[in-house]
Structures are given as structure tokens and as C-alpha cells.
From TrEMBL:
It holds the Pfam family GFO_IDH_MocA_C3. Keywords: Signal. SUPFAM superfamilies: Glyceraldehyde-3-phosphate dehydrogenase-like, C-terminal domain (SSF55347), NAD(P)-binding Rossmann-fold domains (SSF51735). PROSITE patterns: TAT. Residues 41-167 form the Gfo/Idh/MocA-like oxidoreductase N-terminal domain. GO terms for molecular function: nucleotide binding. Residues 1-35 form the signal peptide. InterPro entries: Gfo/Idh/MocA-like_OxRdtase_N, Gfo/Idh/MocA_oxidrdct_glycsds, GFO_IDH_MocA-like_dom, NAD(P)-bd_dom_sf, TAT_signal, TAT_signal_bac_arc. This is Oxidoreductase domain protein. Residues 191-324 form the GFO/IDH/MocA-like oxidoreductase domain.
Length: 427
């Protein structure tokens, strides 16, 4: 499996989109300097759903000298709703969005980026993330982007390249993989790294619940493209399917436990039993994956979205001296420990870290793990969809590109084809 430095070299050598580093750097806008705590940072929000609105509120709570000055979404009704919700919070006086800084349509992200903001929050459906991250970094903006960062390997490589540009230019690029910023999780995993459970023997995660995603009824005259985007959670080209969209949090926690070593291969299975019919697009409702690492360690990861079943949400790290229960912040075995009190402010903390990095000119860049954890979920989905074992190198180099080239409501929507293991090809 390519390690972080090797993967970076491989990408820079093989991606057709990559040019000489010096040339890339010279083409980018230099980031503004914001040393000190009193300079106002202008923030633009792209994506006005629940997570985007939440990210905007978190950003306002994290830095008293930032303000939201631009907002954009594909659908104008969402921008209006988000503005109203943000203005009703205790931070409403810092929501200073003029009418000509409210944008809608497929190019809304470009208009937000070009509106004079310093920081861009990206929270649209994941399928749009690669082009949005790329555009924001090319424009010299600091970026917070939600997880996952892509829905396919081509998108992952696009974000990887953008992350390299951000690193070269001293731009902050923060991921929405929020458990990395959760204090109790940090302490638990630090103890694992310091030997509390001994040599690692096995990893295990489950996430069983009724599922996320809201169905939006098709109205007369609505195109297939609009209908799919409004129901984005149920279409792989928009959501990546829930093993990569939601379960990526569990994958990233274990990547953190493994000190950002990623698996060599995965064999996964999955399907849909209750999430059926046209309204549910092409996504599955259950997955089970077995990841294998270079040293032979295995990670068993299972998840389902099915109503009326037992819910479970657990992460265990098993070593030869004990077992860590990540979600309960405790360790049993030779070095017993439990965190008694924990205030979960991870969504807030990731924005605090972002502004601290910007204001103190010490760029924070989460590219390595936000891209690789996203790819970890995507490779498991690829395995489950095809029935084939998928190696890390296969996934990293895959030409799978699910995002449509033409983006308009009049354009043809991607065909809806539920994957059939053993029939669906591995690209």
C-alpha cells in the first residue's frame, strides 16, 4: 500500500492534470494574511442544507471576528431558509449577506468564491465536492469541506491535487471528519498509540440505524436531474452511498488508530432488501467489509440502514493487552482507564482549529487523511458492488468517474442501475 509520501509521489507522477510544482504555485492567488485576532474574516457558505447551516453556525461560534458575507446553493429556497436560521441565532449580527451576495444555480459556488470572501465552507452533496474544493483552492481561499471529499477515485485524485496546491500556498484546508477534533476520542486514541492495549490484533466497527436521507417528491415538470439532486442521498454519483458518505467517520477513526496507515485490500458484500424502488435510487441498505493491512491485521466493518431493526454504534480496538471501546472512551485489560466526563464539541472544535491556523499563519492541511479515508469507503463500495476484492492500488488508480460532465437541469441524468455483484464490472 502506498504510504502518504509514496502516494503523493505516485499521484504527482501519474496524474495528467498535474504540472510542474513551481508553475502551479505561480498560478495561484496568494492567501491574505490575517495575523492577529481583530481582523475580520469574510466567510462564504456553499451548500445550504442541514449540515451546511450547521457548519455556518459552528464557524460563527468559533471565531468572534468572522462574518458570513456570501451564500450559495443550487436551489434558492435553501439560501433563504439558511439566512433566516442563522440570523435567528446569537450570532445573527454577523450574518451580513447583501442581496447581491445570495447566489443560486449550478455556478453558485463560483460566485461565492469570487465574492471577496477569505474562507469558504463547502457542504453540498459530496459529488460536487471535488470541483468546489479545486475552485476554492485555485482562487486562494481557505477551505472547510465536509466529508466525504469525493464519490469516486477520480474525484479523490482531484482533491488530492488541490490539497497539494493548498500546501504549497500556505492555505488552510480542514476536513469535516470531526472525530479527529473530539477531545475524548483524542485521549482514547493517544492512549492506544502509547501502548495501552498493546500490539493491535483486530479492529471492529458497527453502525446500524434507520438511515439518513429525506425523500423529495417528484413534481410535474421536474427533470430527472433535478429529482436526483433533490434526493441526492439515494444516488451514488451524488452521495457515494452510505458506506462512504456516513460510515466514513468509522473508517477514519480506525485510520487514526492505525496512525494513518491504510489497508492493502478489502473484500466487501452488500445489497438492498428494504431500501428498494425508484425513490431509493441505486444505493444499498447494508454493507459488510473486511479490510486487511500490510501486517495481516484485519478490520471488520459492518453497517446498515434498515427501519425496525436493533440500532448499534460501536468501535473496538483489540490488542494483546486489552480492548479499547472508542465510543465509550474506555480501555479494559492491563491498563484500565475510562474518561468520566466529556463535552462533545467536535463540530465547533474543527472550526476553532481552522481559524487558529489562519490567524497565526500556520496552515492546517487535512488532505492526507480526508482523501484516503474517503477512498477507503469508496473501495469497499466498489468491492460490494462488483463482488470483487479491491486493492488499495486498484482503487487509487481507478478511472471510475461517476459525475456527469454536463451540469444543468436539462442535461441527461446518470442512468439508475442498481449494482449486481458478479455482474457489475470493476472499473
Amino acid at each position: 500500500m502506498p504510504q502518504p509520501s509514496a502516494s503523493r509521489r505516485q499521484f504527482l507522477q501519474t496524474s495528467a492534470a498535474t504540472t510542474v510544482v513551481g508553475t502551479l504555485a505561480s498560478q495561484l492567488t496568494s492567501p491574505a494574511a490575517f495575523a492577529g485576532e481583530t481582523n475580520t474574516l469574510k466567510v462564504g457558505l456553499v451548500g445550504c442544507g442541514g449540515r451546511g447551516t450547521g457548519a455556518a453556525r459552528d464557524t460563527l461560534s468559533a471565531d468572534p471576528n468572522c462574518k458570513i458575507t456570501a451564500i450559495g446553493d443550487l436551489f434558492p429556497e435553501y439560501t433563504e431558509s439558511t439566512i433566516n436560521r442563522l440570523k435567528s441565532t446569537e450570532y445573527g449580527d454577523r450574518v451580513t449577506i447583501e442581496p447581491d451576495h445570495v447566489f443560486s444555480g449550478f455556478d453558485a459556488y463560483k460566485k461565492v468564491i469570487d465574492s471577496g470572501v477569505d474562507v469558504v465552507l463547502l457542504a453540498t452533496p459530496p459529488g460536487f465536492r471535488p470541483q468546489h474544493v479545486e475552485a476554492a483552492i485555485n482562487a486562494g481561499k481557505h477551505v472547510f469541506c465536509e466529508k466525504p471529499v469525493a464519490v469516486d477515485p477520480v474525484g479523490c485524485r482531484t482533491v488530492w491535487e488541490a490539497g497539494e496546491k493548498a500546501r504549497q500556498r500556505g492555505l488552510t484546508l480542514v476536513s469535516g471528519l470531526c472525530w479527529r477534533y473530539e477531545d475524548g476520542m483524542k485521549e482514547t486514541i493517544d492512549r492506544i498509540h502509547n501502548g495501552a492495549v498493546g500490539e493491535l490484533k483486530a479492529l471492529y466497527s458497527t453502525r446500524y440505524n434507520a438511515g439518513a436521507g429525506k425523500h423529495y417528491a417528484r413534481t410535474p415538470g421536474m427533470s430527472d436531474m433535478e429529482w436526483q439532486i433533490r434526493n441526492w442521498y439515494f444516488f451514488t454519483w451524488l452521495s457515494a452511498d452510505f458506506f462512504a458518505e456516513q460510515f466514513v467517520h468509522e473508517l477514519d477513526k480506525m485510520a487514526w488508530v492505525m496512525q494513518n496507515e491504510y489497508p492493502e485490500r478489502v473484500l466487501a458484500t452488500g445489497g438492498r432488501q428494504t431500501r428498494i424502488g425508484e425513490a431509493n435510487g441505486d444505493v444499498f441498505d447494508h454493507f459488510a467489509a473486511m479490510f486487511e493491512y500490510k501486517n495481516g491485521l484485519r478490520y471488520h466493518a459492518t453497517t446498515r440502514h434498515q427501519v425496525g431493526c436493533t440500532n448499534e454504534f460501536q468501535d473496538f480496538v483489540v490488542g494483546d493487552k486489552g480492548t479499547a471501546d472508542l465510543m465509550k472512551y474506555n480501555i479494559q485489560g492491563e491498563n484500565e482507564w475510562r474518561k468520566r466526563k466529556n463535552v462533545n464539541r467536535m463540530y465547533h472544535n474543527e472550526h476553532v482549529a481552522m481559524y487558529d491556523s489562519i490567524r497565526n499563519s500556520k496552515a492546517l492541511n487535512n488532505t492526507d487523511y480526508m482523501v484516503k479515508s474517503s477512498l477507503m469507503g469508496i473501495m469497499a463500495r466498489m468491492s460490494a458492488y462488483t463482488g470483487k476484492e479491491v486493492t488499495w492500488d486498484q482503487a487509487w488508480n481507478s478511472q471510475l468517474d461517476t459525475f456527469p460532465k454536463e451540469q444543468s437541469f436539462e442535461a441527461a441524468a446518470p442512468p439508475v442501475e442498481v449494482a449486481v455483484p458478479g455482474v457489475t464490472p470493476l472499473v
